Each structure stands twice: as C-alpha cells, then as structure tokens.
Amino acid sequence: KGGKVRPWYQSAPVVALISLAGALCAVHIGRLVSLAGLRSPGGYDATSYYSDVYVDAASDPLQGESEAVAAKKAFQKGNFEYRLGKPLEALKYFKQAVTLLPSHSFAWANLGNIQRELGLVEDAVASHRNAVAHLPSRARHWYNLGVSLYSLRDLPRATLAFRRALELNHRMASAHYNLGVALAELGQRVEAKLRYEKATSLEPSSALGAASHCNLCNLIALDDGPEAAVACLRELVAAFPDYERGLVNLAATLQLRGETAGSRWQDSNNMDWKAEAVAIHEQVLQMNPGSAIAAHALAALKGGDHVPEAASVAYVEQLFDSYSVDFDASLQSLGYQVPSLLEQAVQRFAGATSKPFNTSLDLGCGTGLCGAWMKPLSTALVGVDASLRMLEIAGSRTDQEAGTGALAPAEAADQLLEAPWISGSSAEVRKTFLYDSLEHQDLMEFLQRQPPASGDLVVAADVLCYFGSLETFFQSLVPVLSPRGIVAFTVEALLEDTASTLAPGAASDWHLDSSGRYKHSKPYIIRLASAVGLEVLSEERIIARRKQASTKADPSMPSFSFLESHPWPPQKRLRRTVSEASCDSEKYEDEVSAAHTASPV
Length: 601
What we know:
The protein has 24 helices and 9 strands. It is α/β, with parallel strands linked by helices. Strands 1, 2, 3, 4, 5, 6, 7, 8 and 9 form a 9-stranded mixed beta sheet that branches. Strand 6 (510-512) and strand 7 (518-520) form a beta hairpin. It is globular and about 115 Å long.
C-alpha cells in the first residue's frame, strides 16, 4: 500500500525460473567437464578394471558418469548385496569401488571385512591398511585393521591397532573387548582385565558386556582362584540369567571350588556345590537341548548307567573352541609340563639323529604346543583337532613364532602403515609353518583314514582323557604306525586307592571323573598295548601341572605317560623307567573375539 511497485523481472516467479535455469546450466557444464577429464590423458583409465570384474552398464563411467559417482554406486551395491547374504557379489562391487576411486576409505574397509569373512585374511589386512591410510582419523578403520591382524594371529600389531582406535574413540566398547582378548592371549592379564571391565561398564546390558564380564571372571579364576571367580560369575548370571556361557562357567567353577575345598564345601546359600552344578546344567539343557557341554557334565556328575564310553566330538569341539582364547596363557600359569616331558621321553629314543622321523602325527594338537618340539625331529608334521579355533592358532605357529613376539616399545601405530611386513604375499608374511598339514576332524576318523604304516611318530598329549574305552584307539593306531614307529601319550591315572572308592560294580579299567575327564588304570593300558603287539618302551608318572593357578602347593591328580613301539631288535630296546606323573587339565571356557566379521560401515 502506497509502496513502490517492483519491476517484472524481480517478481518471485521470474526469479525462481532464472535460478532453475542457472542450476540446470551448471549441472550440464559440470557433466561436460567430467567427460572431458575422463577422456584426457590425465584422467582415470576407466577400462582398466573390466578385465578383472564385470561392471554393468549402469556403473560404466563411459556411459556418462564420473568415477566418483560410479564408485559411490558400486559401494552402495556392495552394501546391498552383503545385506542379502551374498558376500561374493559384495566383494565384486567393493573391488570395483576402490578401483574407480582408490581414496574411498569406506569401500576399502568393507572390502577388508568381506575378505576376512571369506578367509582371505592377508588380503583383508592389506585392505584395512589402505582404509586407515586414506582416513586415519576414523576409529572404526583402525578397529577393523586390529580385527584382521588378530585373525592373522599377529597379536602385538593387533593391540597397536586397537589402541589407536581407542585413542580416537575411548568409548568404543568393542575395541576395549578385543584388545582384552589379544592381551589375554599374550599373557598380559592385568591389563586384559582392565579392558574387560571398561567394556562391561560401557555396555552393561549388551551381549558384548556379558561376554566381557564372562572373560573377566575367567581371568579372575586364574589369578585369584575359583572362590573369587564364583562371586564374579554370580554377578554375571544375576544380570544375564539366560546367558548360557555364564551358567556353564559358573557350574564348572563351583565344581572346581568344591573339589578343591572338599566334598563338604557349601556356598553362601548352604547349597552343596554338586547339587547346584547339576541344577545349573539341567537349566542349560532346558534352554538349549543341543548343549553338548551341559549333557557331558551331567553324565560326569551323576554317573550311573548312562556314562558314555567317550566324550562326544561336539563336546570336545564346543569346549576347546571356547577355551582357545587363553589356552596357552592359562596352561603357562599352571606350570604345564606335558609337552616338555613327552619331548624328553622321545628324545631319549631319537638320540642325536637329525630328523629321525619322516612323518609325525600330532593327535589333538590344540594350539600346537607339542608341534614346537616335534617339527625339528620330523620331515613332515601333521596336526589334527576337533576344535577349529584351536587349529587357527596352531596354523599360525612358525619356526620363529612369527607374529607372536613382542614389538619394540618404540613402534607406534603409524608404523603399521609403513612397515614392509605385509604386502599381500603370503611368502613375505609367513616364514616356515610348524605344521605341514592341519586337519579339522575327529581323532578316530582321522586315524582310520590314514595310509598304512605312514606314521613314524604319533603323539597324543592330554587327549585320551576324553575317551573312556581305548580299545578302538589302539586298534586304529597300530595300522598307522610304521614298522619302527613309536607313540607317546598321556592318560589321567585311575589309581588303586581311587578305584576302591568307586561305586560297587564300577569299571576298574577306566572311569569318568566328575571333572568330565576319563581316568585309566596302568594295567589296562599295558594290556591293550600287548593285545595289539606294541611294546612299552617307557612308562612314567609325571607332574603335569598344578590344579589351580592361584596356589603353588595344591595337590595334583596323578597320571601316566607312555612311550610305546612296535617290537625292536634287542640291541635297540630302551630300558623301562618308572617315575611320578599328573595329567589334570581343568578347562575354563572363554569368549572369543566377537568381531571377526564386522558389518559394512
């Protein structure tokens, strides 16, 4: 009203039309510039990738898109295919994305995650190194690098990557958790416990928090004894009453505490440990009828007519998959001596001969503790185990223990990007593996499938305590031994004074102990060896380890170790020796890294 009238070219409709025309013009000019760059000598070579991975027309830069736009589309397609459960398709698109745009750090990260999931761990490490090189400020990239280094069994460098992730984001619970896992394997339990405590405090109600709390309790059991661990585990199952692993660990730790303190030990609720352990395992079976651990534990605790002649393969696999994380560290804390004692027995037989055994078989090889001394004596070393996670650790062992030694303190996380230790070539990453072959298989099936007379040395350290009747073992073993082959093994001893305490009618040859392991009598082993034509070269009783890490004076359960062979000429026979032995091997379950496969970022 009374104001000045604006010219027509300043009216709102005209201004809007002019703005729209300008925007369309800018888009068209930018498109022409992008096409010119693609076809100029300094632009990307858009055709260099087609010979490796197929790219459909919709992603083809020559059809009118820049490499950046095409890379973005490939990245999105990779995420889409991954969510559909198609890792190979996702792998193709992530490769396409990093080829079109090598600085795409998120595509490198997802490519590494898929490669790790597919078992291409060395490639995954290389991809994650590219991710952190292009975006070193992102904590998740360092975390993914740490997970891949852990999978490669390069624990010291994995800890460096996890630490860098935490420097960038100190509230990343998964980084605290996996750093704790790596530190526990390296024997650094004090800091590992602190990391588990931090992860638990950051995510007290999540599955990760439960796993961290569980691992913390297991380390407390090793350092402070079962009574402190029981208190820790009670807190865990109070917060997570349906957490199967926590319940199983509580039952096992109650049992260990009760057996250590005597049969009359009771908890604060005046409940006998055995009755409570039975009740917990029954609860686990109600929750999960397929729990082999709970089923075997109930058979061991209850006894009676339903005792199996051997632990099931599923039981052994579940038990040692869970126990693999801190297996070496926990045995070291217990003063474990079985590998070295078996080595001494075999060395007395082998003498100073270089590689006296052509093919050696490590039955139930676990993480490869016996492989370290078997390899120098053998032309070829083969390991077999029912636990895939234990085999992963055994497969990482080398003559120089590459990837498990400590790094110099001066090495910083930045050197992970510069060091020449990884370039995608397995020959550069690994030197000489201890094992020439590793088999994920049941022990009996493995023996029955071996060529006749193919084993010159067969070792079974702390393995036969998961079998009751050993007739099938000896019958399967003998055809595998070469004419002068030897077998070295341990069994947990069923002594005469122990046998006298068993229920009337109980077997005198073997017995399933409440620990879940089988005991065997010495006459039984000697009788079986004689029946299949083996000669006992050496039978010893040794102190294998302490029962608890928290005390150095606790009694150990006695066991026998044997060295047996096909009959030798008289001048080659060894003198028979007798001494003391123990083969107790209490097992604690432990959570493994929950982040072997990270989701696409």
